[in-house]
Description:
By secondary structure, the protein is α/β, with parallel strands linked by helices. The protein is 42% helix and 18% strand. It has six helices and four strands; from the N terminus they run βαβααβαβαα. The chain has helices at residues 10-27, 46-49, 52-62, 81-93, 111-114, 127-131, and strands at 2-7, 34-37, 68-74, 101-107. Strands 2-1-3-4 form a four-stranded parallel sheet, sandwiched between helices. The relative contact order is 0.18.
Amino acid sequence: MRVLVIPEDFRKDQYILQPLVTAMMAAIGRPRARIVVCRDPLLGGIGEALKAERIGEIIDRYKGMVDLFLLCVDRDGDEHRRQRLDELERTAQALLPESRLFLAEHAWQEIEVWLLAGHDLLDGWSWASIRA
């Protein structure tokens, strides 16, 4: 399985997403999945990452080489982000053959918080306070 992780800006997010998605794939029984973080094009922010045209460019470039496209963005406190991602999933999936999949997910606040999921929390810390 070949997975292309599409961050809103790979320059820092790649260091969180690459090992996280690798571990996730292993946990679902795909330990040999090839995980690649999309570096070309550099989206450079949420505005570009949520544009169907930009996602279409990525799909056109990589659709012959990738089984799963995984867009990962920050929620940034936007209550409607999931709705926008659902729309983008439908648009992107229409560009792909049935054997390929496009999924979009948002970190509740920031992708950096996902990094904490692999660690034991310190005494007195709670997920509720971290998410807040």
